[in-house]
Amino acid sequence: MSSARSESMASPAAFKDPPGGRKAVLVWSIGVAVYFVAVIFRTSLGVAGLEAADRFHVNASALSTFSLLQLLVYAGMQIPVGLMVDRLGTKKVLTLGAVLFTAGQIGFALSPSYGMALAARALLGCGDAMTFISVLRLGTRWFPARRGPLMAQLAGLVGMAGNLISTLVLAPVLHGVGWVPAFAGSAVAGLVVLVPLVLFLRDHPEGHEPAPSAASGAGGFVRRQIADSWREPGTKLGLWVHFTTQFPAMVFLLLWGMPFLVEAQGLSRTTAGGLLTLVVASNMALGLVYGQVVGRRQSSRIPLALGTVALTALLWGSVLAYPGDHAPMWLLIALCLVLGTCGPASMIGFDFARPANPAERQGTASGITNMGGFIASMTTLLVVGLLLDATGDNYRIAFSSVFVLELLGIAQILRLRGRALARERERVGAGTGAGVAAGTAVAAPSAQAQAQAQVPVPAAPPAPAPGVTAVAAAGAGAGAPVGPPDPQPAR
Fold this sequence. Notes:
- 74% of the residues lie in helices and 0% in strands.
- By secondary structure, the protein is mainly alpha-helical.
- It has a single domain (20-198, 222-454), classed as Growth Hormone, Chain: A (Up-down Bundle).
- Helix 5 packs antiparallel against helix 7 (132-142), helix 5 (90-110) runs antiparallel to helix 9 and helix 16 packs across helix 20 (447-454).
């Protein structure tokens, strides 16, 4: 047992269940409002992809670079953000994030060139990356552990609402008033949420301060946090579950869904936008279902994750292999409904990382886990764009790349599940034998409750995960189509 874990188990502060109540709801609402705005900004390019191609005179590969860069920054920031949350607290990290993503949105509105627009999206992605883990930590610090699943899923629903705002509000505004007024006007929302964030948000209730971390330099802290988190099989399994489940929907919503539906399937932009909205609606409806199922039956985590991947692959394969030029509408609807399960399934990754790590490592472990889906999404976004350019816009070949990463992820999940579950049983058993109170890292009454309370969409989501929020998620970044990114807010 590491010294960090010993300290967390010895600290009385670690065992006190937060009280909840009206003040907790107020503080959490401020944090989730910041996440809501971040998801809107993150997904704003998803409703302006075709306009962006015309404005900056770029092809498919260059257009995918917008989303790729934003996801690269988002994924690369996850571990640093987790470390910052563990070290500095939620308020400071969330405030910095709000400043950065607002500046990025303003910069994107005013960018006259492709290069400057890329820099603005990178800045936006940096700020966006600071929101999801911070909001989940607020839920941990302010609400009792039994409320964990509810608060995590509500955060995911808010991230999905941000996706819908991009589709239903920002898209018509963009087409009505133009690029600069639409994007610059939306940036005002970032300034609005920054005010209550600075004035009223608190990291934790009085009397529930986290245990002081061991004295060490910044370098020693970073190395210890990352090494101890990654050493746990549950953290690795969480990353690969997130990797395998989140990216199919994120890629579809983030960039390539609208071009696929319009150019390959012959649908109007209105109909295609409706199908993208269906993905988000499905995500919102199924998020609470997944949370309740896993909260009651921890043994369902692996079957749910692998079942979601298998069903997603089956529907994608059916659409891509359908004879003729276009798949029937019923099949496209079925695909979009199934893609809505990807964000909730990606949250299961956090459910493995959460019980594997003590309270003082939750931010770092969450950041590592949240990288999984975004790494897969970045890879797929780039590969699809390259294959489209290389094959003359053959979407069947381009989207077949999805299956390669799904197979890789399945192999890693099957490889790691035995060790991770055995380690989790040992920890829960040891914690129960020692009489550790419920709600701590070692004796969680429900892995799902603890994972979602303490740990990412969007969505999403979405937020998920950065949900593409939710976000996670689960939810992610930007895109070409008229549609919302980041199904898991991500997270």
